[in-house]
Amino acid sequence: AVETARRLQIYKGISPYVVNRGKDFEESVSVALQFLRDNGVLASQDDVVICASRISPRKDADTVWHHKEP
User: Fold this and answer.
1) What angle do CA 19, 57, 52 make, to 5 degrees?
2) I need a labelling partner for 40 at 20 to 30 A (CA). Which of 1, 16, 47, 70 fits?
3) For 50-68, what is each residue's pLDDT tens digit?
4) Taking a C-beta distance cutoff of 8 angstroms, is the pair 1, 18 a contact?
């Protein structure tokens, strides 16, 4: 995950973050969004793409989810 984040830094407009996973997909998404909000990274109308696993929080990502911050 960290290596993938490093590779994404070469693309303009992409700021990758790696955060701790939750116990399931929904919690992982919530944890990621709260991390971005708490660190002042997420602003109104920002687009966020979250890669996570719906199968198991300990597996590689199998889902890509788009969020538009209100």
Assistant:
1) 60
2) 1
3) 888 888 777 888 888 899 9
4) yes
